[in-house]
Amino acid sequence: MAAQRHYDELARQLSAFGAVKRDMARILPPDCPGGSAAVLTLLKRYGDMRMSKLAELLAVDMSVASRHVAHTADRGWIERRPDPADKRSRILTLTAEGHERMEDLNVRTTELLADRLSDWSDDEVNQLIALMTRLRDSFGDCRTTTSRGQFPAAAQAPAPTQTTRTPA
Amino acid sequence: MAAQRHYDELARQLSAFGAVKRDMARILPPDCPGGSAAVLTLLKRYGDMRMSKLAELLAVDMSVASRHVAHTADRGWIERRPDPADKRSRILTLTAEGHERMEDLNVRTTELLADRLSDWSDDEVNQLIALMTRLRDSFGDCRTTTSRGQFPAAAQAPAPTQTTRTPA
DNA sequence: TATTGTTATACTCTATAACTATA
DNA sequence: TATAGTTATAGAGTATAACAATA
After folding, report:
1. What fold characterizes domain B27-140?
2. What is the pLDDT of residues B11-23, one digit of tens each?
3. Which terminus of chain B, N or C, has less C-beta within 10 A?
């Protein structure tokens, strides 16, 4: 239980943190807004999944996820195949075009962060990641869209279909 | 210079961090959206200031700040007095009603954070605050709305007109 | 001519609710 | 009846550009 003063300061940081996100968003290509980029990133990282799972990872309502997915599907970056096990569901898959788009996004993101974090150490970045992850958990424990905690160690063990080795 | 993998993870955290902010926004009273709350918080904390300074602290374009300020002024929470030294400028001042509103906001924020951060130590909260502050600085160094760095130690020495003692 | 602030416009993101199809 | 997903609608936040008043 931290002191009142710390709460104020944390609230202030959260409030002004949007500027960082907006700076990140500025480097995105014109036809790929942040929502689409997030969809592609998660599919690249965790592999095929259903709408509901994607919505959970995005931490938004499924209606919002549906919107972003529609945008990316319209551009041919992902495919929505029917789930043979449950005809209500759709399985999302990154297409070849989607992978290309991701390469581009990765380059842009890396360039930006390499510039902005040029004087950060690995350790500091790791600390920040760990604390942000923990904060998200602390907030997410209460009101989650669905169940939460089904994906294996989301923050600890990322990077599935990175280069070679198709683990699934 | 951190590794590529860390960049990806940090970008992921930033992307999903919006959920935390939305959780914070949910506790706001109906007639006081996040933008208005931010205006009141900054005026309470740093005292009277001009539009341009407020926009800088909010880390948004002045047109956006003008909008939020208009909303709070319409409700009588702040006053916009002409600056005698520069008739183009307006000095923003928290009214008595604005102070009342801030009391309410403080209670709500504190309650929420006390709940969410119940198992956080002071030290952890401080670490997170410090790293978020540093990240904002790293990003803000490049493209700032105006000059930056005019306010004395924004993150280090907050809390001006807290309870008693009117330092100005 | 440059700067402070306001307003008009457009875009992104979000949630709620109503709806379809399937379980 | 309950769940997966889509769509319509509305609200908040933001930036750009055009504008007014003043420096």
Report:
1. Arc Repressor Mutant, subunit A (1.10.10)
2. 999 999 999 999 9
3. C
Do B13 and B7 contact (CB within 8 A), yes or no? Answer: no
CATH of domain A22-140: 1.10.10.10
Report B:45-74 residues touching A (Cβ under 8 A).
45, 57-60
Chain segment A90-99, per-residue pLDDT in tens: 999 999 999 9
Write out the DSSP string of A69-114.
Answer: HHHHHHTTSEEEEEETTEEEEEEEEE-HHHHHHHHHHHHHHHHHHH
Q: Which is more confidently placed, A2 or B117?
A: B117
Q: Per-residue DSSP letters for B131-142?
A: HHHHHHHHHHTT
What pTM was computed for the model? 0.86
Which helix (DSSP H) or strand (DSSP E) does residue B157 occupy? none
In the three-class reduction of DSSP (H, G, I as helix; E, B as strand; rest coil), residue A50 is classed as: strand
